[in-house]
Design brief:
With 103 residues, this protein is of the alpha+beta class. It has one domain (12-88): Alpha-Beta Plaits, CATH 3.30.70. 24% of the residues lie in helices and 38% in strands. It contains 2 helices and 5 strands, in the order E-H-E-E-H-E-E. It has a 5-stranded mixed β-sheet with strand order 4-1-3-2-5, covered by helices on one side. Helix 1 (28-39) packs antiparallel against helix 2. The mean pLDDT is 94.
Length: 103
């Protein structure tokens, strides 16, 4: 897990998000990748067989809330109807943010 010297492991949390709406075929995963990388967030994004985008991400809660705000807007051509968000304890298993294979 990447962190700067002012952050400690206890500052990090994990968020599991499902994005519903017109979110596949519009560049949503790569939009998420770009926003996460700009914020220094680790984790992954993928499409689901139900037509959603699933995200698992770790960093400080303020950075993750910024990412969530970006997800609510989405890229051009998308329409976000709902976000299902679950906050969890960080596991520190990621060293970068990636697009992974659909489930």
């Amino acid at each position: 897990m990447r962190k700067d010297s002012s952050q400690t492991t206890k500052d990090f949390v994990r968020v599991h998000i499902f994005v519903e709406g017109r979110v596949q075929g519009v560049g949503f995963r790569y939009f998420t990748l770009q926003k996460a990388n700009l914020l220094g967030i680790t984790g992954w994004v993928r499409n689901t067989y139900r037509g959603e985008v699933e995200i698992l991400a770790e960093d400080t809660r303020p950075k993750l809330e910024t990412l969530i705000g970006n997800l609510r807007q989405g890229p051009g051509g998308s329409f976000v109807s709902n976000l299902r968000i679950e906050w969890l304890d960080a596991t520190e298993e990621f060293d970068r943010f990636s697009v992974i294979s659909s489930n």
